[in-house]
Amino acid sequence: QVQLQESGPGLVKTSETLSLTCTVSGGSVNSGTYYWSWIRQPPGKGLEWIGYIYYSGSTNYNRSLKSRVTMSIDTSRNKFSLRLSSVTAADAAMYYCARISGWWPNIYFDFWGQGARVTVSS
Amino acid sequence: DIQMTQSPSSLSASVGDRVTITCQASQDIYNHLNWYQQKPGKAPKLLIYETSILETGVPSRFSGSASGTDFTFTITSLQPEDVATYYCQQSGTFGQGTRLEIK
Lengths: 122, 103
Known about the structure:
The complex is a heterodimer of chains A (about 120) and B (about 100).
Chain A: E1 3-7, E2 11-13, E3 18-25, E4 35-41, E5 48-54, E6 59-61, E7 69-74, E8 79-84, E9 93-103, E10 106-112, E11 116-121
Parallel strand pairs in A: 2-11
Antiparallel strand pairs in A: 1-3, 3-8, 4-5, 4-9, 5-6, 7-8, 9-10, 9-11
Chain B: E1 4-7, E2 10-13, E3 19-25, E4 34-38, E5 45-49, E6 53-54, E7 62-67, E8 70-75, E9 84-90, E10 93-94, E11 98-102
Parallel strand pairs in B: 2-11
Antiparallel strand pairs in B: 1-3, 3-8, 4-5, 4-9, 5-6, 7-8, 9-10, 9-11
């Protein structure tokens, strides 16, 4: 059974860069069968897809966040990461990593991490 | 971009009731529509993918169907443990969510 676990600072200052890592166990990020994704959820609100990364390093980001998002993958450590620059209060959210099955755009998120709460302070 | 319109935004029903949630796509997405359940304080959980395929371990009271660009998620007999928010999803777009409560 695949398991995903987010980690990273829970508090980020306004205008700085949010950095999170997702560690995958029970499966390999080096598999060409899946994509690896980040999704966020502001308090009391719905889900927003941030983007995905493929084992090859190719990425696809949500257009609304594209200018501030960078994703990377470390196949040797079975991890992938998210960086979101120039954060504001609007970036405060629960951040989930998830595995994607299917082939873009016909995909679904079949395994999720438990989430990492990120607060933005001035 | 394809827009997904999910309704209702909230719903209250009694144990044993049949519950229906709908999601309308702004254009043809064939059968590429998925449904998730999110219980309070938990990560979303995939219930149904490709319109009607139940994820392994999901109870059979959950089902999905489609008619053109209209997609339907149904719980045939609502149980107390079904209290959650439900989301549809297509590609990188999620519906707005439906909060389901017990009367």
